[in-house]
Design brief:
By secondary structure, the protein is of the alpha+beta class. Helix content is 30%, strand content 20%. The strands form 5 sheets. It has a 17-stranded antiparallel β-sheet that branches. Strands 18-19 form a two-stranded antiparallel sheet. A two-stranded antiparallel ribbon has the order 20-21. Helix 1 packs antiparallel against helix 2 and helix 10 runs antiparallel to helix 13.
């Protein structure tokens, strides 16, 4: 017996309906009947539950209580409350996704005063508000039993709640494709009397929708606009900013109405009369479905939501929506659950960590898109809901570090994502800053193209150690060798072995805003090119070492020695020239002097997170590592409440408040915390690595508890954030947990 059945058992003995248990958000509603529509029979499926004997109920309940907690360890058996740390954004499975129309949804089942809602960034929100007699269950905080999230996959959510005592609702939400989603609704009456319910199905959007029409008492059609600048930086002629929309019910509406100004939820809460018409330019509408649920019985209905480019016939969207009214859910659930089968099952410190682990894997899998356009293999976007224009166009090397986690779910798909880079490589070895299905962004400056921070071969080597795919290894070695040679040839302009950022150096270096060193040089696009780059040189230590490992695995010992010599030479430069024994830290060097001080007397000795990269790359001596760990674990520097900031807290440029995107003067970036974490494990500082993970987990868990989203970056000290939502690379958390709690899996 499942835990949801046990909860059903506990209410089975109710002999009558009593709405007195509905709390503060239950409102009295009295609607005028001018919007009423004639009833239509045969629209609902009925079922009756036989009564169960008390001894069997007691035994089943005890069994469920005994078995329940152990099942909260996979996305198929979450049993998560509204304040549990679960990611609740959903998008279509990769096989039914497309680029130019791709609607994702966020499940809001947690906001006080609001009913369960499916929200979007630009296409509007929808859901159900329940009415029983004159009582309205207007918000989840007033439900007789608050929502419990039973399942949560990349594309499917299933939750149970009780809007009124003895009335149990199960909503199974499925994002079927980039165009279509549906909610399968099952209502169970656990009392001994029939329940005359009204389902107020609502839709609303802050900006008006156009050409609204209500047809057949089951379908509303309308249109909305999503400007191209919300989706892309590069103009895309194929993109149609005008969308057709549908919302379809499987049962006829008894009444309907639209609202030109007020939101639909406000209209329901205020008991406004429904006009009976939905037409023209509006901001929301309501469809009222009457359904009497028999005693100890259940009824079901379905809501389908669809969007499609307005340049295509709306009839195709309408027919697709109607087809989903009868789509079985069980096969879709099974397909979605199968995505997680390869992922390691970890014994983590607590239930919250289990939920964050599965949520992190859902995050990365959800962003994977099928081959399209110039991308001949699957690729990723940074976020599908909300959509960010700079993160929607394609892949970048440092975001691809998320493949280190994703490879545990689907190594072949992680390999294919890396092949997107290989397929766009130029004969010189150059790979563009961003590559996607319809762009290759190179951002040339003074004739030099921009690439990105070189994590390419290291990522490939890590994936290979999971997949053991020799074909991928050979491809990675060819492509990685060409790319490394390009870097060594073009990014050592001084000829002294140190590497300097090129092209649009601000983009190429990753740390593209509010960096303390770039600030010293005027915060221009070429500011990062003014230093002999500590981070760039350390990254190439790992790139060339990874190529040496590949060459050895491919049986090419001479080439392996050559690549290892490159790695050792670069490591020696960092170890001896970029280390300051007085402060016990690694720094950039000024290009005009080759020291820590510029020709104008400006000191570059500012402690940044990049100073710990020599731990990650294995460059530091044991003595240097010990000094670095002293800085790392100093609460006045880097050992902050929510992880390692990008800049030491004792620096006057430090800013712990996250006010916008792309802050590198104090924000906690999870990928960079992973590199520090990796370095701690590499040098035997496991206790410190465990503590770092705990601090980062505290940041992420706090946000998932309250808003059920991941974030681009986190404050080292505070909980208020204003960074972009649902950033792909936060999935690296799953890899951190695997590295600590499944060492047999993590090489």
């Amino acid at each position: 017996m499942s835990s949801e059945q046990s909860a059903s058992v506990s209410n089975h003995f109710a002999q009558s309906l009593d709405v007195s248990g509905v709390r503060a958000s239950a409102l009295t509603k009295s609607r005028a009947t001018s919007g009423a529509l004639a009833p239509e029979a045969g629209s609902l499926r009925l079922s009756r539950r036989p009564s169960l004997c008390a001894p069997f109920l007691l035994a089943a309940l005890l069994l469920c209580l005994w078995a329940g907690p152990a099942r909260a360890q996979t996305p198929d058996h979450l049993n998560a409350k509204i304040d549990d740390p679960v990611y609740t954004t959903y998008a279509a499975p990769m096989s039914r996704s497309e680029y130019f129309v791709d609607e994702g949804y966020h499940l809001n089942h947690y906001t006080p005063g609001r009913a369960v809602s499916y929200t979007t960034d630009t296409a509007g929100d929808f859901g159900i508000v329940w009415q029983l007699g004159h009582a309205v269950a207007a918000g989840v905080d007033g439900f007789a039993a608050k929502p419990i999230l039973r399942r949560s996959f990349t594309d499917i959510a299933q939750l149970d709640y009780q809007p009124f005592p003895a009335i149990r609702v199960r909503e199974t939400f499925v994002v079927y494709s980039s165009r279509l989603a549906f909610v399968d609704v099952e209502i169970t009456n656990e009392s001994g009397k029939p329940a005359p319910l009204v389902a107020n199905v609502w839709y609303q959007r802050p900006d008006p929708v156009t050409d609204a029409a209500f047809t057949g008492r089951r379908m509303v059609t309308f249109g909305h606009v999503e400007p191209a600048n919300l989706w892309f930086e590069t103009p895309q002629p194929k993109y149609d900013p005008n969308f057709n929309d549908v919302l379809v019910l499987s049962l006829p509406a008894a009444s309907a109405g639209s609202f030109a100004q007020a939101g639909a939820l406000d209209a329901i809460h205020n008991g406004e009369a429904l006009s009976g018409t939905i037409a023209g330019s509006i901001r929301g509408f309501v469809l009222d479905a009457n359904l009497t649920v028999p005693a100890h019985g259940s009824r079901r209905f379905r809501i389908v939501r669809g969007v499609a480019p307005a340049s295509q016939p709306i009839t195709a969207l309408e027919s697709g929506a109607r087809a989903l009214l009868s789509q079985p859910t069980a096969p879709l659930i099974a397909q979605s659950e199968a995505q997680y089968r390869r992922a390691p099952r970890l014994k983590l410190p607590n239930r919250d960590w289990q939920m964050v682990y599965w949520s992190a894997l859902s995050l990365v899998r959800q962003q994977m898109m099928p081959p399209e356009g110039m991308a001949h293999h699957n690729y990723y976007v940074f976020s599908r809901e909300p959509t960010w224009r700079w993160g929607h166009e394609g892949q970048v090397f440092h975001e691809s570090l998320s493949m280190l986690a994703y490879a545990y779910m689907n190594p072949a798909s992680a390999e294919d994502s890396q092949r997107v880079f290989m397929g766009r490589q130029e004969p010189s070895g150059y790979i563009g800053y961003r590559v996607g299905p319809y762009v290759t962004q190179t951002y040339p400056v003074k004739g030099e193209q921009t690439t990105s921070a070189p994590f390419f071969s290291w990522t490939n080597w890590e994936i290979y150690q999971l997949s053991h795919d020799r074909k991928f290894l050979a491809e990675s070695y060819r492509s990685g060798s060409a790319f490394a040679n390009y870097i060594l040839k073009t990014r050592d302009k001084d000829g002294d072995g140190f590497l300097e950022w090129g092209g649009n150096a601000m983009l190429e270096c990753v740390r593209d805003s509010q960096d303390v060193i770039w600030h010293l040089f005027g915060d221009t696009d070429d500011s990062p090119s003014r230093v002999k780059a500590l981070d760039f040189t350390a990254m190439m230590v790992m790139e060339t070492h990874s190529l040496a490992e590949m060459a050895r695995a491919l049986g090419r010992p001479a080439e392996a020695r050559q690549w290892q010599q490159h790695s050792d030479r670069l490591a020696a430069l960092v170890r001896t020239r970029m280390w300051d024994p007085k402060t016990g830290f690694f720094y950039n060097l000024s290009r005009d002097t080759g020291t820590f001080v510029t020709a104008k007397g400006i000191s570059l000795k500012r402690k940044e997170v990049i100073g710990f990269l020599p731990l990650w790359a294995g460059i530091a001596t044991k003595a240097q590592a010990a000094r670095l760990v002293q800085h790392l674990t100093d609460p006045n520097e880097f050992w902050r409440r929510f992880g390692v900031p990008t800049l030491s807290a004792d620096d006057p440029y430090f800013q712990p408040q996250i006010k916008e995107c792309c802050q590198w003067n104090g924000a906690v970036w999870l990928l960079w915390n992973y590199l520090v974490f990796h370095g701690l494990l590499r040098y035997g500082y496991r206790t410190q690595a465990e503590e770092l993970l705990r601090r980062v987990m505290a940041a992420v868990t706090f946000q998932l508890d309250r808003n059920h989203r991941f974030w681009e970056s986190y404050s080292p000290d505070f909980t208020t954030l204003h960074s972009p939502k649902n950033y792909l690379w936060d999935s690296i958390l799953a890899r951190m947990m695997i590295d600590l709690y499944a060492p047999a899996h993590a090489h």
